[in-house]
Amino acid sequence: MSNPLRWRRPGRPPAHDKPEPDPFAPLVPQELVDAPGPWLLMLEARAPWEYAAMLAAAPWLSKLPAGDGHPVIVFPGLGASDITTAPLRNFLQERGYTPYPWKQGFNFGPRHGVLDRCREQLHQVSGRHHERVSLIGWSLGGLYARELAKEQPDHARCVITLGTPFSGHPRATNAWRFYEMVSGQSTHDPALMEQIRGTPACPTTSIYSKSDGVVAWQCSINPAAPHAENIEVHASHIGMGMNPLALYAIADRLHQDPQAWRPFDIKGARKWFFKVTHHSPMQASHLF
Q: How far apart (Å, rounded) are the C-alpha atoms in residues 105 and 128?
């Protein structure tokens, strides 16, 4: 299989003979992005209001195009479980899709056996439905979705991530210390960061927010590619999976035919609620 998931398990030596990276080495320009400040972090408290907004917007969301029944696996964020993705999965089921939880309890990083079970689930769900599976990942869960799609392109229909830090340095988040503590892995791994930046071959959408209080929004931008896009919504990190605007964008993207995929259209009234970014601001600053 090409481009395998290469998160190293705790206690295992690197699978190559290269020396360990110097944790105090200077970062390259693309990685010089600060984590969200205390004000944005405080704004994460608005997540319950986003849940209330989702309930209030139910009549509007119910008018979105019905799905075709294809399977969707939803991966939770760091320190979260399937309980947090239940509103999103319920929404997908109501829209006519077949959502699956990841069924691995709390997401404490790619510890021993986690990635193997993700691979097995993707194989099983794809085989059960005899078609490709859409992969949705919230925060850290988005890294699982992206890497699985790279490793198993024959089983991945599309990838949608919510506030996922796949570009820039992992320490441009307010969760890196917690990640290192619960996963037993270092966030400073240049080779791994380079792997994660790669874009899956299937249609790939990154939904992000400039008011994200956990992940610097610049770390959630796909580079320019015919099958990749970035959709900006007004949302918190914690509430993104139940934010009405994010749900609208998810439903629109899942409704796309992968063989005739088109980028998200922000014409008309959409331009008041959504924005799109066509390239990484970190890459642009590095070029000039």
A: 23
